Amino acid sequence: MNGEKPRARPVSEEAMAPNSKASAPSDHAAFVAVINAFADDQRVTPPGSGRRFGDRHALKVNGKIFAMMSSKGDFVVKLSKERVSELIRTGRGTAFDPGHGRLMKQWVVITAGHGFWVPLAREARQLAD
Questions:
Q1: Which of 12, 23, 26, 80 would suit a FRET pair with 2, their CA atoms being 20 to 30 Å apart?
Q2: DSSP result, the chain
Q3: pTM for the complete prediction?
C-alpha cells in the first residue's frame, strides 16, 4: 500500500452477513447503513480492516472504536458518560458489558429503534476526534 488507511466504502448486506444467531437480519441491514453513512469520511476505518476479531465489526477513528456490533449482535457506541446515562434513563439504551462482568461507563448498547443508529454513530464519531 501507499501508506494510506483503507477508506470506508459502501457495503452490501451480504458482505456483513450475520455470524451470530443473536442478531436479527434487520440489525445487520441497519449496521450496513451505519457503515455507509461514513463511506466518505476518510478518517474512518471500516469494519474488516484490522487483524483482531473485533475489527471485523467495528468503525474506528485513529485506531479507536467508536461504533460496533458486539459479539452478541448488539449495536454499541462510545459516548460521554452523561450521554450514556441519559440514553439508559430514557430507555433507549442499556449498559454495555463486554463479557467480563464490568460495565463500561462510556459505552452503551442501543435498544432504541434502528432509526437512532446512524445519528448516534455520528455523535460517537464526533467525540472520537
A1: 12
A2: --SPPPPP----TGGG----TTS-HHHHHHHHHHHHHTTT-TTEEPTT-SSSGGGGGEEEETTEEEEEE-TTS-EEEE--HHHHHHHHHTTSEEEE--SSS--EEEEEEE-S-GGGHHHHHHHHHHHH-
A3: 0.78
CA distance 21 to 102: 24
E strands present in 36-103:
44-45, 58-61, 64-69, 75-78, 93-96
Per-residue pLDDT tens digits for 33-79? 999 999 999 999 999 866 655 567 999 999 899 999 998 899 999 99
What does residue 55 show for φ and ψ, rounded to 5 degrees? -65, -20
Any idea which residue has 464490568 for its cell? 102
Q: pLDDT value at position 99?
A: 86
**Between β-strands 44-45 and 58-61, what pairing exists: parallel, antiparallel or unpaired?**
antiparallel
Residue with cell 456483513: 16
Which domains are seen in the chain, by residue range? 22-128 (3.90.1150)
